């Protein structure tokens, strides 16, 4: 199915690995122009070799001023995927200020900042657009050691709805995807313990974790005009976890 994304210009954060990298690869494959944002230069270098024409931007999105400088001249962007995120898992009684600051800076504040930059450009051009925020099933279910991470993702879900409400009149749609554990490097690191994985898998009716392409396929659909009547949604990609 042709999603009509060819020729559009997309910006993807957290583009170096996992869901972000898979999204860049998929957008490049369908003929979109892609700006890839990552804090890791080596990841961007290998991505550009793999997908010639991708525009790399190396910046730590946890740094507001550096992000402003890096993206101020980014040019017109039609599609945005806010994928950059961190998962600093700690028992509640051991949560540190540093973990709170980093988690909220990257998982929430950076989404606000990057989305403002893109949305202001769209409005100035009078152009429609689509934004997809990568959230998590952890936004809607409590998980051990996830108190801070879950809080950032719950906030991201409500931010998505608020953005959809305010940007809708400008023909900018905003949605979130809420995957279960995805077999990215971060997912593998946090769920490599078989016993820990079993406790989660036992709560997923389909009995498996998600693969990167499961998430990427949904992101591309939400970016495209095939989903033109969908905004403010949080789309579970969880094998039925939230149904239990």
Tell me what you see in this structure.
- With 244 residues, this protein is an alpha/beta fold.
- Helices cover 43% and strands 15% of the residues.
- It has a seven-stranded parallel beta sheet with strand order 3-2-1-4-5-6-7, with helices on both faces.
- Helix 2 links the parallel strand 2 and strand 3.
- Helix 3 packs parallel to helix 4.
- Homotetramer.
- GO terms for molecular function: carbonyl reductase (NADPH) activity; L-xylulose reductase (NADPH) activity.
- It is an enzyme of class 1 (oxidoreductase).
Question: What is the fold's blueprint, element by element?
Answer:
Layout: E1 9-13, H1 18-29, E2 33-38, H2 41-50, E3 55-58, H3 64-71, E4 79-82, H4 97-125, E5 129-134, H5 147-167, E6 172-179, H6 185-190, H7 194-201, H8 212-223, E7 234-237
Parallel strand pairs: 1-2, 1-4, 2-3, 4-5, 5-6, 6-7
Helix pairs in contact: 1-8, 3-4, 4-5
Keywords: Acetylation, Carbohydrate metabolism, Glucose metabolism, Membrane, Methylation, NADP, Oxidoreductase, Xylose metabolism
GO biological process, one term: D-xylose metabolic process
Organism: Camelus ferus
């Amino acid at each position: 199915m042709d999603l009509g994304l060819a020729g559009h210009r997309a910006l993807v954060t957290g583009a170096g690995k996992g869901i972000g990298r898979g999204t860049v690869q998929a957008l490049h494959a369908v003929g979109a122009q892609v700006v890839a944002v990552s804090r890791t230069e080596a990841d961007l270098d290998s991505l550009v070799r793999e997908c010639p024409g991708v525009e790399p931007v190396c910046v730590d999105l946890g740094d507001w001023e550096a992000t402003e400088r890096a993206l101020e001249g980014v040019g017109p962007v039609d599609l945005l995927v806010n994928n950059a995120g961190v998962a600093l898992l700690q028992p509640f009684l051991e949560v540190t200020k540093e973990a709170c600051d980093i988690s909220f800076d990257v998982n929430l504040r950076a989404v606000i900042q990057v989305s403002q930059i893109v949305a202001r450009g769209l409005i100035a051009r009078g152009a429609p657009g689509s934004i997809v925020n990568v959230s998590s099933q952890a936004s809607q279910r409590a998980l051990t050691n996830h108190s801070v991470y879950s809080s950032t993702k719950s906030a991201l879900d409500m931010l998505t709805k608020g953005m959809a409400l305010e940007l809708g009149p400008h023909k900018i749609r905003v949605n979130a995807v809420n995957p279960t554990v995805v077999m990215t490097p971060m997912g593998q690191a946090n769920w490599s313990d078989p016993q820990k994985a079993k406790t989660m898998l036992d709560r997923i009716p389909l009995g498996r974790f998600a693969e990167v392409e499961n998430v990427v396929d949904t992101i591309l659909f939400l970016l495209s005009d095939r989903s033109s009547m969908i905004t403010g949604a949080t789309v579970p990609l969880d094998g039925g976890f939230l149904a239990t």
